[in-house]
Write a structure and sequence with these properties.
- The protein has one domain (2-102).
- The protein is built from two helices and five strands; from the N terminus they run αβββββα.
- It has helices at 2-42, 99-102; strands spanning 49-56, 62-69, 73-81, 88-93, 97-98.
- Strand 3 (73-81) and strand 4 (88-93) form a beta hairpin.
- The longest helix is centred in the N-terminal third of the chain and has 41 residues, at 2-42.
- It starts with a helix and ends with a helix.
């Protein structure tokens, strides 16, 4: 009996560890793809873009949000990825806002 519990716990641990690198790699791929798409949209270097993985939505798509700041403006955007996280299905550029207005929010 203890043998089967020990084996079950080990098998569960192995299964969890086996899925973590796939998730991490997939998230890194989504961040990179969104950063590249935004850099192209804003005609800037990917190094000027900041992105953050926001999680998987209830419809299964993945959300990555980001910002691109200039001296005077803040630009925000969203990338939506398919369920597999391997393709951008929607890219939204929000209206930029002035850094001067930022304190008034």
């Amino acid at each position: 009996m203890f043998e089967s519990i020990k084996f079950s716990a080990i098998a569960t641990g192995i299964a969890l560890v086996a899925t973590l690198p796939v998730y991490a790699a997939n998230t890194a791929t989504m961040l990179s793809a969104c950063k590249s798409r935004a850099a192209n949209a804003y005609k800037t270097s990917p190094g000027n873009i900041v992105v953050k993985y926001e999680g998987q939505r209830t419809d299964g798509t993945h959300a990555v949000n980001g910002t691109y700041e200039t001296d005077k403006m803040v630009n925000t955007f969203q990338c939506s990825f398919n369920r597999n996280g391997n393709q951008i299905v929607k890219f939204i550029k929000n209206l930029p806002y002035s850094k001067v207005d930022e304190g008034a929010m």
